[in-house]
Amino acid sequence: MGHEHIVYEVRDRVATVTLNRPDKLNAWTATMGREVREAMEDAGRDEAVRVVVLTGAGRGFCAGADMSLLSDLAGGDPPPAGAAAGTAGPGTSDVPADFRGPYACFPTMPKPVVAAINGPAAGLGLVVALYCDVRMAGADAVFTTAFARRGLVAEHGISWLLPRVVGLPHALDLLLAARTVDAAEALRMGLVSRVWPAGELLSGVTTYARELADRVSPRSMAVIKRQVWDAQLQTLAEATAVADTEMRRSFGSEDFREGVAHFVEKRAPRFTGR
């Protein structure tokens, strides 16, 4: 099925989702939100996919919500719930309420989502990046919360996400001042984990994603990802109890046996995810 506002490709067990409105710096629309969510669902189900990369076409990652939507709102009634993103969609009844929002399809899918931030990530675009598991940026990327300079507030859960990524002082600075941060400062505060030279971002992130796909147990990645996101809502005792249970389960898995065997035999792993 074709897509209107994204491009979806799978190669070498890595799915790449590209926001594809380059003339608008990939400003987010309801159509884009729906297509991204569908792509994440497809990647989550596809046994040929082990890692997902999210990036933007052209010179931007995502410049926020489409300005035509914001202009309409400034002169009229509030939108229906989920208008900028699409609704949370079906199949969420077994997901904790905290992760039923329209962008929580990234934390709740069982495979790592790596954001390759190739240009401006502003407003909603920054929120989308924060819901990814890992963020890497090109040297020319820039970041801004933007909301306060539009007369808006800390939207879409960013008041919860951003302090967990960069700490409370940095989060308050970025939200209140809504100033622009370059890639070097984003790296220093932990907003991104790595910065690549201009022109090398996508190849670098793809190499990283393929290393995960080739060398790491898909089962381990899925369990660890769920542990870390769920732990944001747990006590240490609760997180430890989950870890103890999951450790016992891992001892019975094919990937545990393969993880020991390939290390002892000094060869590349052949993980199955089981």
Termini separation comes to 30 Å
Provide the CATH architecture of the largest domain: Alpha-Beta Complex
At CATH level 3, the topology of the largest domain is 2-enoyl-CoA Hydratase, Chain A, domain 1
Shape annotation? globular
Number-wise, the strands total 9
The helix/strand series, from N terminus to C terminus, equals EEHEHHEEHEEHHEHEHHHH
Question: What's the domain count?
Answer: 2
CATH superfamily of the largest domain: 2-enoyl-CoA Hydratase, Chain A, domain 1
Instruction: Provide the gyration radius in Å.
Output: 19 Å
The CATH class of the largest domain, by name, is Alpha Beta
The chain-level structural class is alpha/beta
| Strand portion | 5-15%
Give the helix level as a range of percent: 40-55%
Number of helices: 11
Uncertain spans, ≥5 residues at pLDDT below 50? 77-83, 86-92
Mean pLDDT comes to 89
Describe this structure in words.
The protein is of the alpha/beta class and 274 residues long. The protein has two domains: 6-213, 2-enoyl-CoA Hydratase, Chain A, domain 1 (Alpha-Beta Complex), CATH 3.90.226.10; 217-264, Lyase 2-enoyl-coa Hydratase, Chain  A, domain 2, CATH 1.10.12. The protein contains eleven helices and nine strands. It has helices at residues 30-45, 67-74, 105-108, 124-131, 158-166, 168-177, 183-188, 201-215, 218-231, 236-251, 254-264, and strands at 6-11, 14-19, 51-56, 113-117, 121-122, 134-138, 142-144, 181-182, 194-196. It is globular. The model is unreliable at 77-83 and 86-92 (pLDDT under 50).
